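Let's practice the habit of predicting before peeking. Look at the sequence and jot down your guess about where helices and strands might fall. Then scroll down.
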Amino acid sequence: MPISKSSHAPDWQSTVQMLWEILHQVVHEEESTPVVQKAQESYVFADRLRIEQVPYHLRGNIDAQSDSHALELLDHTIRLLTEQIRLQNLTEDLHRINLVEKGRRSPIRPLRGSIRELADVVNREQASRYPERVEGRLVLTSHPTESTRRTILQHLRKIADLLEQPEFDASDPKWHHHLKELLRVLWRTPNQRVARPTVMDEVELGLYYIRQSLFQALPAVYDDLDAALGHHTPVSWAIDSWIGGDRDGHPFVDVAVTQKTLQRHQEVAIQLYLQSLDELERTLTAEPRYIHHLDLLERWLTAQGRLFLDRAEDLRQHYPQEPLRQMIGLIAEKLKVTLTHRLGGYVSTESFLQDVRQLAAHWDPDPLRWPRELRILLRQIEIFGLHLAALDIRQHSRVHTQAMADILGAQYWDWTDDERIEAIHNAWVNHPPFVPQSPVTQDLKDVLDLMAHYQRVSGQDGIRNYLVSMAHRASDLLAVLFLIHITDPQVSVNIIPVVETLDDLQHARAMMDKVNHDTLWQEHIARRNGYQEVMLGYSDSTKDAGSLTASWAIFRAQLDLTEWAQEQQLRMGFFHGRGGALGRGGGPTSYAITGQPSASVKSFLRITQQGEVLSQKFLLPKIAYRSLELMMVSHARAVMFPSPDPDEDTRRDMDALAEIAFQHYRQLINHPDFWEYFLAVTPIREMSALNWGSRPSWREQFRWEDLRAIPWVFSWTQNRMLLPGWYGAGHALDTFLKNGKTHLLQDWYQTWPFWTTSMHNLELALVKSDMHVAIAYHDLVPRELTAQFWPLIQDDYNRLHDALLTITGHSQLLDDQPRLQEVIQWRNPHVDPLNYLQIELLARYREKNDDILLPLIAKTMEGIALGMRNTG
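Done guessing? Here is the structure:
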């Protein structure tokens, strides 16, 4: 039975059922305990509770002292429920591919967000033209809530490849057997790590996505977009990474890890180019009479052949009548020696690109006659260079302050911002030596030395950005400039403040204005061609202020900073630190791009792709192409057809609305008993059992202030409340509606992309949250805390639900996206049994503190995370 080509849910659901049935056959054969029966009973019970709208209540039916067979059965039951969700997710992705391909073939109207749709709009309307392309970057990151092992992802890719074959038919014994054995491999593979992954494990996972899809998909989208727009594409995108360079609060990212990461980036880049050249060598097989400027080609072959005598002779023997194949072989040979910096290797991306451009010119002077393989290789070199992905270096401002105290004395800690700036100026020429007094500042010095060495040897492409977390004042940026200056004045990087808290977002313009009036900073910006980048932290700001307030604060900061940059005649770029979850700035990336202020997308745009979002978007090549197409088309459209920014009246109204939401959110968070409620109603304390990410969940102490935003959001996702994604918005919107602002909010929804995106994300948050399941977690909470907080949460949920229907005009949430609505509604009940098993396990663990239960709790967390699909 093939994957359904229909858009109707029963067809893709039947594919899920087919996969489950074959998986059940495998489990029956593999396990001696009645795993399938137990899992089915769990689902039937949970489904009956949902249909009858009866809340689940703690049953106390798990005993850590039970015999090993009972715990083994529970373990396998959790695993089966989890694997069913994993296969369901895969089927949804394949179904989405089918819908996209069907949409591309439609003669009636182009697919939403497609290259064809944009080309039609450009042909119809007058688009803004830009003399230079606006750059965009996807920034790969890894985080503690990414639970899926790379081995599991590889098995899923094999299953997807099988299901996508046109001739696949599960009713055919041959195909059925093939699929069954792939599912057996999946079942036999441990889905949980025994040890916490190292940073290098995470680096390799990021590289896996580049190898599997991004290296091919991004150049392909770029090439198709450029062709569709008559080679006037207004945007160009590339890949950056944090993995191996982000050391903020991450004790395991040291200079050795960063050095190895940079090396692996170059190694993988060369491996991928060698594969592309191998494919190209089988394409450019022209005989000499078709080759343009044959004399120049022969001269090149002679010159390079002197450096690689044996290889050149071998190529002449193999391809005596195909000199372009000889050239490709020598280009490959030059690449192989590049990493060792031996004579004959490429000294820069430009020298590599020059050879391939010469190769292309010998084939044909007209680019329209270049084979696609040649065009894609040229795009790959332009996008990925020899560095593959630029590695960002990030460190907390506190570490730089500590380093400055090592150099200028302990009194640096006590100085005001102005006093610190004066001290930096005084020490600029004749500075004391940097003698680190702690392991943290020693690593800082080591990584600055590494940056200098790398740029001297490999150029500036691989390390371009240094990010300063929790940058509160001008001296936080000047301190980094000073530390780089005393290491090596030739180091060239953007120094980027990470503006994370609500207060910092509101004062970002003042901080940037102050530092920009400093002469040292002015010289630095002049060397960067007048470019200044600011990173906007969605995670901490949302944890700090709630989703609606944080979204507006980020939008407002961009308005303020772009206006300021125009006044200062600077180019301003923005780096959006968005998480996958709705409580961390998540939601569709393409919507997020179109919802930004018009000027903010016209200089430089960077967006993080975090955690499990990477596997959702980039595991399957066709999904990767579609994801990148949506992003690049949205960016191009925002550049070519900018939407008007809000006027002063709108800004004042939004300021008032955001303040109401903020006060309501903080009233909950600041309650003296809320921390105790949070610890009880979520599995945050038990997260220490997870070996999912290399980074700790806490910055310093076990308290709300030091809890990272990622586990904060993850824990609320586990109990299905998703509270960080929506709380506070209900009270604010309801207040505005009752104050006669209904038509205003409805008009915003129809005309203002930022507001449309905000309402969509709130709808999505409510649809994915589930009060039916969330109430069951209150059996873990003392009654007085439940009575104190649960009514507040329910009330804001209900207010938001009704307000969204009023503003959007929908009869149900997400009415404008019926497929998404349908998928979520079908998926949610299949997650319920895992939630109820988690509640039982948490209750027993908290009562007995028996560590034998922790791995089982961890497995329920993975299953629920897969079911929710955007946890961190």
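How did you do? The longest strand covers residues 134-141.
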